[in-house]
Design a protein that fits this description.
The chain has ten helices and no strands. The chain is mainly α. It has two domains: about 140 residues, Four Helix Bundle (Hemerythrin (Met), subunit A) (Up-down Bundle); about 110 residues, de novo design (two linked rop proteins). The longest helix is centred in the N-terminal third of the chain and has 30 residues. It is flat and about 60 Å long.
Length: about 260
């Protein structure tokens, strides 16, 4: 299990380096998204190690990159939407900003700090292994994954569920299962259902963000009426996706 963990960390570090190169060269608009996804996967891999010496530093570094890039990714999604609606002036203004802001992520303190701790992490984990700190690693991971599933089930069963929290919990469960497939014990279609629910909640989240931004950004005014309708549809769609997920997990639908 330690070998698997270290191999996973090295693989994700290589992917981050690839994203870093793409951001530096401004080769494609998906580099930032891929960077964020890779960082989330890394956090899922490392989540079961929380509480072990030195792991807080790694988690803080990964969170720092997430916090830095969230507004930029939100702006990317918005710019793409504006362009699709023919609002070229509003889209171009944001695209121009992103063209200068995204490459700066590659040289940011946050990303360089993450690379620094990741470079040291494999040898650090080997040292912990030698001192017997990782002896029950598999059981530790299993307990963490069980806890995540329990939190997700309780949240889905709550009639007043918080969509923000559900989205986060689904991401954690989904990425943990991808990181540790031999431990996840999921039914065959579970990842597909998790992804569907995450996507539906993501659409709701986008509309919520856009409506909030429209209060301060006048060039978004033409979109507000459509977004107000869109967020209602997204809520309905996300509830249906969550019901399907709940039934797949537990065999009955939650009460609304």
């Amino acid at each position: 299990m330690v070998d698997h963990l270290i191999a996973e960390i090295i693989s994700l570090n290589v992917k981050l380096l690839g994203c870093h190169a793409r951001l530096t060269a401004s080769t494609d608009s998906e580099a930032l998204h891929d960077l964020r996804t890779t960082v989330r996967r890394l956090r899922s891999v490392l989540r079961p190690l929380r509480g072990l010496p030195g792991m807080d530093q790694v988690e803080e570094a990964a969170k720092g990159v997430g916090d830095l890039t969230t507004p930029l990714r939100d702006m990317q999604v918005l710019a793409a939407y504006l362009e699709s609606q023919g609002l070229d002036q509003a889209a171009d203004k944001r695209t121009r900003y992103l063209a200068s802001a995204c490459p700066k992520v590659a040289s940011s303190t946050e990303l360089n700090r993450l690379f620094g701790v990741l470079d040291q992490l494999p040898s650090f984990l080997r040292a912990q292994q030698r001192h017997g700190l990782l002896r029950k690693l598999r059981r530790r991971i299993e307990k963490r994954m069980d806890k995540q599933w329990k939190q997700l089930r309780q949240a889905m069963a709550d009639p007043a569920h918080d969509r923000h929290r559900l989205r986060l919990l689904i991401k954690r469960v989904r990425y943990a299962a991808e990181a540790y497939p031999e431990i996840s014990h999921q039914p065959q279609d579970m990842q597909k259902r998790l992804k569907s629910a995450q996507g539906a909640l993501g659409d709701w989240h986008d509309h919520l963000q856009w409506l909030a931004q429209a209060q301060a950004q006048s060039d978004l005014a033409p979109c507000v009426a459509g977004w107000q309708l869109g967020i209602l549809r997204a809520e309905q769609k996300s509830d249906k996706a969550l019901d399907r997920l709940f039934q797949a997990c537990f065999g009955d639908a939650p009460a609304h």
